[in-house]
Amino acid sequence: MASEPVEKKGDHAKVKITSKTHVNPSKKLGTRQCQLVTFDLPYLAFYYNQKLLLYKGNNYEEMVEKLKDGLGIVLEDFHQLAGKLGKDDDGVFRVEYDDEMDGVEIIEASADELSVEDLTVDKEGVENLKELIPYNGVLNLEGLHRPLLAIQLTKLKDGLAMGCAFNHAVLDGMSTWHFMSSWAEICRGSSSISVPPFLERTKARDTRVKLDLSLPPDPHTNGDAKLSPPLREKVFTFSDSLIDQIKSKVNANLPSDGSKPFSTFQALSAHVWRHVTQARELKPEDITVFTVFADCRKRVNPPMPDSYFGNLIQAIFTATAGGLLLKHPPEFGASVIQKAIDMHNAKAIEERNKEWEAAPKIFQYKDAGVNCVAVGSSPRFRVYEVDFGWGKPEAVRSGSNNRFDGMMYLYQGKSGGIDVEISLEPETMERLEKDKEFLMAA
Length: 442
Description:
With about 450 residues, the protein is α+β, with helices and mostly antiparallel strands. It folds into two domains: about 15-205, Chloramphenicol acetyltransferase-like domain (Chloramphenicol Acetyltransferase, 2-Layer Sandwich), CATH 3.30.559.10; about 230-435, Chloramphenicol acetyltransferase-like domain (Chloramphenicol Acetyltransferase, 2-Layer Sandwich). Helices cover about 25% and strands about 25% of the residues. It contains ten helices and 16 strands. It has a seven-stranded mixed beta sheet. It has a six-stranded mixed beta sheet with strand order 10-16-15-13-11-12. A hairpin with a 4-residue loop joins strand 1 and strand 2. Helix 5 packs across helix 9. The chain is globular. The termini are far apart. Belongs to the plant acyltransferase family.
């Protein structure tokens, strides 16, 4: 079904929506249901999770046809993304699919004045990218009456912008990139995907939790929205050699008692946490929280396969006084993070689940803690290997949803290293940009 062209005007972009259609699995699958479990439900009040991939290429129409054809095939395995949220007779949330549903929403658009370089040269925020990604400000709970996946394919002067909005109550980052790489595999000519998704969520947790949820007022229209501080977003790229320096420094004084060395993730996270805390100019006694949404596939008992499709993450929180973090050498912050991650074993996960099931608390995306640095995504996701047959992406970014002061996404860098995409209050960001130690320029 085509829609009237709509112009969306950003600062640098004039994006014109040219059509909206839907894609369903290529073959009939009948009716399917899948209960949402304790790992999924807390994300109902988050916003759709947004990703943007930019590709070079001059045959937009061919690219779109190939993407749609491949999507129909890959949805045979990932049919849940073509469904909707629903509730069973007991009020337990689930994913519902049948062949009559709309499927995945595909929005076609054009921004002929924009080149790929216009969108990649600027390491600043997402405001100029916002018009390229659908479902800005849409809550996951709206998946009761909207598609669980929407994809906007925007024609650029010399390429294609692929903006994706995934319902976060249905899948986490690991599942998102499993789906994206499987879709790319089909588009490159494979007749089937190499790793089918593991769809049995209740194998990870089978407790049925009834939630009585209705949509809260839209935070974008009520008076409170004006109270939210403005944020700046920026991507800092740490090359492999800078990562090695950060890691070497933090591991230089390991005690000889067989202590585990700090991982790349722990070293880089501690580096960012420490320098953001410094840039915030906190009082020494002010508490700062570090939060990581940790993958629990190998932590639960029994362990789940990497191909588990759904959410199998939990937020791990750890905190210290800002003065302590800055007074001690970098390994102090790394050890606080390492300890919190190591303690989050099968027993801790089970206790957290039972506690939540006894008194379900629906988090909002910004409930990550005071003076927080929170990590989403992971440099382990092979985001630059999502090649649909016309080459690797020129850039991979997150959208504007689920951002708050201190939210950080870690991505594999295009040419190695790690991209740190972070949102901060403008004054904090300005001080961080001038911090030579943070940038490893000193």
